[in-house]
Amino acid sequence: xxxxxxxERDIRIFQRRAQLSESSMQKHDAxxxxxxxxxxxxxxxxxxxxxxxxxxxxxxxxRGPVSILSARLAADASPMVVALAxxxxxxxxxxxxxxxxxxxxxxxSGAKVLLATQGLDAAVSAAMLEALTAAALAATAPMPVIKSxxxxxxxxxxxxxSGDGPEIDAEQSIAIDRGNHLARWLTTxxxxxxxxxxxxxxxxxxxxxxxxxxxxxxxxxxxxxxxGAFLAVTRANEHRDAGIVRLRYRAGGxxxxxxxxxxxxxxxxxxxxxxxxxxxxxYQMHEDMQGSxxxxxxxxxxxxxxxxxxxxxxxxxxxxxxxxxxxRPQEVVRAANGTTIQVAHSDAEGRxxxxxxxxxxxxxxxxxxxxxxxxxxxxxxxxxxxxxxAFTNRPEWHGAIEAAGRESGERVxxxxxxxxxxxxxxxxxxxxxxxxxxxxxxxxxAARFLSKFVPAEIPWIHIDLAAxxxxxxxxxxxxxxxxxxxxxxxxxxxxxxxxxxxxxxxxRRE
Length: 510
Known about the structure:
This protein is an alpha/beta fold. It has two domains: 12-162, 3-Layer(aba) Sandwich (Leucine Aminopeptidase, subunit E, domain 1), CATH 3.40.220.10; 175-495, 3-Layer(aba) Sandwich (Aminopeptidase), CATH 3.40.630. Helices cover 35% and strands 19% of the residues. The chain has 16 helices and 17 strands. The protein has helices at residues 22-26, 40-44, 50-63, 91-105, 122-140, 170-188, 196-210, 219-224, 228-234, 279-282, 290-304, 349-362, 377-383, 398-408, 442-451, 486-495; strands at residues 12-16, 30-36, 68-71, 80-85, 112-118, 158-162, 213-218, 243-249, 259-270, 310-320, 332-334, 340-342, 368-373, 388-392, 412-414, 432-433, 460-464. The radius of gyration is 24 Å and the shape is elongated.
């Protein structure tokens, strides 16, 4: 059977400043060069085999718009792709182009690949090389396969980067890729492989490998904590193995440190419960644990980057099953913070388990909470699978939250979450209604519901993972399951400095 965790890949990235030449190309199995689209003909002549590239470009241009050329222009030459990029391209556009380039090149497993830019502004050159690196690593990350004859996993490429700008942070690129790979791997595993018990084992093994402290709040412990919202969802489970996993990363050094809490929805399979999902809606419901996978993938990336703050990662792990004991509409349950909830729909189980998980995480008084969940179809309806929705109890952060998405290429859109939305969640019998029957604006109402379980003094961001599954992939990720959130959150924390108050200077890991 397939492993629960992906194998650690030996990723090698070299960086140098050198003129692109026929001899430098011959030292590699393949070559990618990105040039300025506005100066295409001029730049093509300066490449090895420049006259041939210029001829190919003119022939292709006569047939229509040109963005990628590929050829092997001599018997002893490596396969080469030349891509034409606009200097004004957004990070998302660069990542998307990089994915198309890598697909066009399709190098062999473990190939030595030269990634180069010619004639680009220094900052644009570095950004393009980073995008090419991200796409190369994502494209070659193996995903779980369970077949009679399992194909050999591809070896990661050996990348040499050459450009006119500053070196990229290769360590950060690798760390983000490892976190994204972990998130995609876990989400891809079938539900008879990754279930509540095996998921807990995988997380325990991962914690041991990474040096995290591992603890688990089982159903007995949750009963003592009066976590009635979480326990309502677990009632129909055949096995009593649901609970909340806590993973703890502690930064080195002395003195007071900032505290980050990552929270993830980990529904290993969602039938919808009493409000049973139809076939098409249930087909992919092994992915309903994707929020937890993104949370732990983000923890892995931040650990590898040796961030100087403490992190607690809280993962709400259960299934939402159908059965005689399943929770029902119109039940009233009491959450861990004492709030009573009138259940409206059993398929809104994610906000139930997150309610108690957020309450418990808040008791550690973190400086920031970020939660991830495949929570609402309404968010997909609003944004499609190209963006994720973002919500926060700090509306003044909307600019930074949106900017992190724009600059990382994992785009988010901040939604309003004003208090007057609460009138839609008023209940005559309980403190709050779980959701409304008509699901209008459900992504916003779900966020308002969750806000009741985070004290106002704790800054909190909720990411509704509308872009977690997109046919054909998104940006630099070619698989349907995108692992969206690892790259975004790293950008938010390290570049936007949302936790530290400024761009973070990382300490290199020994």
